[in-house]
């Protein structure tokens, strides 16, 4: 009997589905996209409605051939890539390749990878959604037009190797604009005055001065502070008003992609890329003891807060059994979903609430456990009753001044039994104190109106004054940046991780104390893109394009028309920029700093990572230096930190030092230029070839492409394109992993053995 063929994206998912479907099905993995636009040319017919010319991706011909061979023998073919635009495009490309074999081709969508869901999908197959395919095609064509046509301009005007992205460059703009806000910010002085008081019963508590003569008080000088302290000397304190109210701590919806990335960054300190990689593994399946390979969460790229009726019933039963009736609302909690959300998808949830985090702890790596627990807790909390707090606000009179203290007491935990929102704040303000910023206790002592209070004396008690300065808007951390992109409509939640990874890989932004700041290169490129392409890299325009892509998916917009409306003004701006954009490549700025090697005055040049000092006597003198500029424009030379190696030079015996070149770090003799010996820097990974005792080192081809090979070459000819990582694979125990850069997912850590399928975030 002929088997049916099921085609998925990843080997891990293939393994899980094979377990569920049994011997009558063959499950194969495409390992991502099989076809894409060519790398060597535009690949878009500008004269014929922007028709894309797809080619088989390099290295995927073997996989495609194997799929075609199996398809010829198959009874039915089920295409099961991920249930999103990219997955739909993968399914379409495969269907196009298999369409001539006469076998029935079906599309199945797997929102969760459980046995019941998989078998249900097989019984109710659908067809490929061409609206989704066209939305993906439109995005791919738009991104290719911007990247392929604009990058040569940046190469010509700034330096080679630069690139621009339709969405990524707008994300850089957001970070640059925040930095400009910080640079323009003028700090202002203000003071706070706090009294430590005691009532008839403990505990003591602080209260902050807020009013004078019934009017809001802002203290801006030390002299003003001193006068107030003098007025308060020997003042009597008494309670003038007590206000108590209950506040509900409402339940939160189950995770959608963007919120998962934000909370994972805030609570777990996971980058978005790592979060999505871990979530992918939880979705595709994890070995759970006797259960075998099990998909633990639903699909992790979703905008919908919907929960299936079956999952909702299971969850409400679990809450009642585990926590009791007070924690279960009479009616299920219902949450609003974003306008553009795909209601066919569910929210991100456990495939079974019965698999609580502790029961899985022994089967999950620590980071997988942490993320699963976060998802599980949020899902359970979404259908629990709200928490209830008692908020007490006390006003205290002292002469004509009013102090205020507040406290919070938890009356009912509700959802906080499993999920609390107390996390890192969103520091968007300038730091100025507001009315609500008065001192807050977890609790206050019992107090009555008219009660006299005692000023508590002590080193850090009594009446204390403190000087403050308003702070500039905070730089974006990863959670804040994701929230900003979501609010501004930049990209889609499924692309946030790739965007953040890309702008760092391109050295347009860098992290400083876990927050993003633009590099000099990023600022320079951003200024020129905005100046010459005001629409393409406008935040509102980018958001409008995202809406139009959603419209294509909904069948409301034609994808060719959408691309044409973008392309025509873009190409005009490009032609103008070719003539009018400032050329930085040959620009030199003279300085008064002498070259210590030849005595000539050094000049400022533009290079790979921004400005640097160079000797004008190049190529005879190749001296360069890094520098900084203060606010007045004065240049300060930054002395280079030399990293030495334990390896001596093979020719002269001098110490070898670590140098950075165009293709990464390498070892060079410290006596250069007298001795020009260089050698590759070992990566700490032994060559896996049988019987070889060499080390893997970084090299490059004649065309400049980086690769990694054995230090014993030509005796050993082992080589690979992906960068080795000195850690064994936890799944198949291969001696090392590899670092692979992919367009959609960014940088990933994978097993060197493709058939293994292990992957993690870098």
Descriptive report:
- The chain has five domains: 4-128, Rossmann fold; 159-183 and 478-574, Topoisomerase I, domain 2; 189-250 and 388-421 and 428-469, Topoisomerase I, domain 3, CATH 2.70.20; 257-381, Orthogonal Bundle (Topoisomerase I, domain 4), CATH 1.10.290; 589-638, no CATH class.
- Helices cover 31% and strands 25% of the residues.
- The strands form ten sheets. A six-stranded antiparallel beta barrel has the order 9-10-16-15-12-18.
- Helix 3 links the parallel strand 7 and strand 8.
- It is globular, with a radius of gyration of 31 Å.
Notable traits:
alpha+beta, 31% helix, 762 residues, 17 helices, five-stranded antiparallel β-sheet, globular, Topoisomerase I, domain 3, 5 domains, 38 strands, 25% strand, Topoisomerase I, domain 2, Rossmann fold, six-stranded antiparallel β-barrel
The CATH homologous superfamily of the largest domain is named: Topoisomerase I, domain 3
Q: Unreliable stretches, pLDDT < 50, 5 or more residues?
A: 423-441
Please identify, by name, the CATH architecture of the largest domain.
Answer: Distorted Sandwich
The DSSP helix count reads 17
- Total of domains: 5
Q: Averaged pLDDT, please?
A: 88
Q: Termini, distance in Å?
A: 44 Å
CATH class of the largest domain: Mainly Beta
CATH structural fold name of the largest domain: Topoisomerase I, domain 3
Strand content: 25-35%
Rg, please?
31 Å
Largest sheet: 6 strands, antiparallel, barrel
Strand order of the largest sheet: 9-10-16-15-12-18
